[in-house]
């Protein structure tokens, strides 16, 4: 628990972090990675380049300060961070390095305003957070049976185009060993070495099929660069270079976006773009284990040619009489049965059939924020809304 001496300084930091948080985290990453270039192998350099990692850390630090006495609000965020850290192999030795450069960045940005008492308070607060993360990560490593930075050699046994920009890869252990079990909705990390930047890079991809097949399937969207963002280094490399027979380094499955497949209450799976991937794993699992369940599957895509995993949805419909599918296409101008033109609108879909339902959302941050707000306006309890974030999280719901 934070000491009574430190708490006033953390509380007073909230408006300061709102104003200077991004400057602090930008300097933090710059200084740390200059002094410890080996850590570039852990951080997503694409997110560094487009600024989303710095923005995410700024919002995380701010959310931590604003909710330091609200463990219930912080718990889901902490759990997500723990799974992400374990998936990339974070170790206890990393935490003192991060703490040193975070406190140093606060001093550098705030100057004389960074009093000894303020820095001491943030050192205490960071220490408490670091200890909690280290303990939780140790438990998760133990449960998985995989140590930090441990990888499985897995071979691609099938490659399949899924819509215009997404390719799915089916993976089996290259030594014919049993593949670890996983929960629908979880993800794995893929480790690649990119010659162009001379770095190992890690990316997380949701498993896009039901468990129990002694294989993993991941579905990778090729991220095309434009004037606002660089192209996805890893996704383009996977699309260009990975074929049947390729060996990849794959982590144990992690992630807490994992609904109870066998529950009796209804469930709504709401996604956009490549956010469909964990939903397909969940949907396929329900089709196999609980086909009588009431399910809404709502997905938004740019166009029909960008729709992925349509075959999975159609196959599920053959065995799930209580499955409703609703597709929304931006580049379409007339509605038809189960297909809607324009942006997703849940108003007519969230009806009495979904009483007491759990709602799972995955897609771009703006999409998830919009659907979260729409569900709240429709009277859905916050405790029944869950979301999976690909990449850095804004934490707008906490700040």
From TrEMBL:
GO terms for molecular function: FAD binding; heme binding; metal ion binding; nitric oxide dioxygenase NAD(P)H activity; oxygen binding. Its EC number is 1.14.12.17. Its cofactor is heme b; FAD. It is an enzyme of class 1 (oxidoreductase). InterPro entries: Cbr1-like_FAD-bd_dom, FAD-bd_FR_type, Flavoprot_Pyr_Nucl_cyt_Rdtase, FNR_nucleotide-bd, Globin, Globin-like_sf, Globin/Proto, OxRdtase_FAD/NAD-bd. Residues 149-260 form the FAD-binding FR-type domain. It catalyses: 2 nitric oxide + NADPH + 2 O2 = 2 nitrate + NADP(+) + H(+); 2 nitric oxide + NADH + 2 O2 = 2 nitrate + NAD(+) + H(+). Keywords: FAD, Flavoprotein, Heme, Iron, Metal-binding, NAD, NADP, Oxidoreductase. Gene3D superfamilies: Globins, Nucleotide-binding domain of ferredoxin-NADP reductase (FNR) module, Translation factors. Residues 1-138 form the Globin domain. GO terms for biological process: cellular response to nitrosative stress; nitric oxide catabolic process. Signal peptide: none annotated. In the C-terminal section; belongs to the flavoprotein pyridine nucleotide cytochrome reductase family. This is nitric oxide dioxygenase.
């Amino acid at each position: 628990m934070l000491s009574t001496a430190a708490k006033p300084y953390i509380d007073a930091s909230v408006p300061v972090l709102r104003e200077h948080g991004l400057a602090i985290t930008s300097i933090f990453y710059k200084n740390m990675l200059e002094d410890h270039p080996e850590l570039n192998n852990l951080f997503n350099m694409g997110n560094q380049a487009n600024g989303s990692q710095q923005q995410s850390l700024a919002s995380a630090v701010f959310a931590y300060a604003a909710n330091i006495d609200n463990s219930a609000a912080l718990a889901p965020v902490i759990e997500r961070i723990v799974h992400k850290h374990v998936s990339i192999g974070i170790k206890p030795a990393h935490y003192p390095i991060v703490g040193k450069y975070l406190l140093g960045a606060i001093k550098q940005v705030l100057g004389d305003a960074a009093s000894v008492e303020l820095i001491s308070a943030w050192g205490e607060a960071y220490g408490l957070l670091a200890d909690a993360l280290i303990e939780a990560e140790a438990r998760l490593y133990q449960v998985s049976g995989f140590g930090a930075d441990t990888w499985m050699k897995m071979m691609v046994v099938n490659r399949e185009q899924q819509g215009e920009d997404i390719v799915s890869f089916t993976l089996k252990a290259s030594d014919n060993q049993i593949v670890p079990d996983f929960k629908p909705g979880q993800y794995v990390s893929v480790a690649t070495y990119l010659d162009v930047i001379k770095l190992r890079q890690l990316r997380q991809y949701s498993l896009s099929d039901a468990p129990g097949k002694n294989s993993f399937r991941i579905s990778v969207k090729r991220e095309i660069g434009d004037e606002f963002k660089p192209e996805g280094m890893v996704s383009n490399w996977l699309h260009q270079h990975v074929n049947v027979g390729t060996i990849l380094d794959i982590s144990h499955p992690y992630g807490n976006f994992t609904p109870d497949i066998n529950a009796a209450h209804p469930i709504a799976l709401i996604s956009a773009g490549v956010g469909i991937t964990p939903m397909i794993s969940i949907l396929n699992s329900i089709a196999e284990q609980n086909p009588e369940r009431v399910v809404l599957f709502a997905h938004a895509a740019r166009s029909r040619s960008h729709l992925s995993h349509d075959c999975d949805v159609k196959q599920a419909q053959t065995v799930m009489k209580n499955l409703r599918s609703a597709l929304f296409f931006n580049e379409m101008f007339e509605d038809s049965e189960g297909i809607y033109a324009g942006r997703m609108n849940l108003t007519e879909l969230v009806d009495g059939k979904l009483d007491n339902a759990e709602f799972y959302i995955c897609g771009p941050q703006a999409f998830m924020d919009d659907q979260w707000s729409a569900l709240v306006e429709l009277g859905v309890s916050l405790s029944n809304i869950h979301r999976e974030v690909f990449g850095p999280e804004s934490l707008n719901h906490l700040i």
